[in-house]
Amino acid sequence: MEFLFEDSMLVLAGGFFVAAAGLGCLYLLIGAIVILWHGRGREAEAVVAPQPVTILKPLYGDEPGLFDRLKSFCTQDYGAPVQVVFGVQDHDDPAIETVRRLQAALPDAMIDLKIDERAHGSNRKISNVVNMVTLARHSIIVLSDSDIEVGPHYLRAVIGELQRPGVGLVTCLYHGTAEGTAWSQLERIGVDTHFLPNAVTAIRLGLADPCFGSTMALRLETLNRIGGFQAFADCLADDHAIGDAIRAGGQRIAMPSFSVGHACRQRTLADVVLDDLRCARTIRNIDPVGHLGSVITHPLPLALIGLALGSMDGLLMALIALTCRAALCRCVERVFGLSRHSYWLIPVRDILAFLVYLASFFGSGVNWRGYRYRVLSNGRLIQESPTVQS
């Protein structure tokens, strides 16, 4: 009798996981519908009255494709002066050579380089930005991470959104671009089938109003009103904190319908896991309840757990989950004009994402740009030690 009871409990538990996987499949289908809705319901492009802009690009080390990504910001089709300020904190940083090449290739472009080792907090990127902004010549600031690549009309669209009434900051969705390795392909499919549809679904259904480091465009007076970049120099999720400050000041965050490219430059499995774990723990810190509830966004692993516990429906549900994720991926490709993904990576990515999700609940350490940090409950960073640069 005891064995029968234990077997029935396992089957019951398996059925629970299969049911959760079913909810996850429904979520993926809703995501696919919302993505298509996003593509059809795009707002008309804002009418832009071009104004001088300063673009800030903090750098750290050389990266595959860095020259072309930086060049995309220096060759914008825009009807007003554009200054691009690059910044590093080390006189031996190899990114300096890339900037020098860019200056030589584009002698008419307004390109400046700030080399300043001063630290203003534990967030080294924001410390770099605090140093860089002193070179800004214009009253509109666009801050963008080094791994972002944009099209020639990016600036027109972003500044057009910034000129809408009540807008205090403009940010952008981003999709993955692989840098050639199998691991970067794995990361790319994660960005495009997990992050991007989750973000669009949350935004379109009014569940979130995010701010991403891919783009943060705002006026200098707005920046000064929220305390300048130095007010966020100890934050892990500096983009989220800046967005919160903008909304607290009574202004809203706008977002164009297109996405910009995010370079997936991972060279090893460890790179993928550590980057994903940093993102997952950041989300857990920002929204612990929402992060816990996001377990249903992993239907394939949930179905496999149900199958392992004895529910034979788990096999069918796993196949349905794979079909739903592939359909979602196709919708993302179509709406955002992306090249075809390696669909065979979907189950690998789904299982890895679930393992990272589980690991995100244990510990508070993150690796970021060659350094190890501990994240406090208030989102502040404490540097623990340098690590090997990835």
Description:
With about 400 residues, this protein is an alpha/beta fold. Helix content is about 50%, strand content about 15%. The chain is built from 13 helices and 13 strands. The chain has a five-stranded mixed β-sheet with strand order 3-2-1-4-8, sandwiched between helices. Strands 5-10-7 form a three-stranded mixed β-sheet. A hairpin with a 2-residue loop joins strand 11 and strand 12. Helix 1 packs antiparallel against helix 11. It is globular, with a radius of gyration of 22 Å. The N and C termini lie far apart (about 55 Å).
Q: How is this fold's topology laid out?
A:
Elements: H1 2-40, E1 53-58, H2 66-74, E2 82-88, H3 95-105, E3 110-115, H4 124-132, E4 140-143, E5 148-149, H5 154-162, E6 167-170, E7 173-178, H6 182-204, E8 216-219, H7 220-225, H8 238-248, E9 252-254, E10 259-264, H9 269-286, H10 288-293, H11 299-308, H12 313-336, H13 345-359, E11 365-368, E12 371-375, E13 381-386
Parallel strand pairs: 1-2, 1-4, 2-3, 6-9, 7-10
Antiparallel strand pairs: 4-8, 5-10, 11-12, 12-13
Helix pairs in contact: 1-6, 1-11, 1-12, 2-3, 6-12, 6-13, 9-13, 11-12
Question: Tags for this entry?
Answer:
single chain; 390 residues; alpha/beta; five-stranded mixed sheet; three-stranded mixed sheet; 13 strands; globular; disordered N terminus
Question: Quick gist of this model?
Answer:
This protein is of the alpha/beta class and 390 residues long. The chain is built from 13 helices and 13 strands. It has helices spanning 2-40, 66-74, 95-105, 124-132, 154-162, 182-204, 220-225, 238-248, 269-286, 288-293, 299-308, 313-336, 345-359, and strands at residues 53-58, 82-88, 110-115, 140-143, 148-149, 167-170, 173-178, 216-219, 252-254, 259-264, 365-368, 371-375, 381-386.
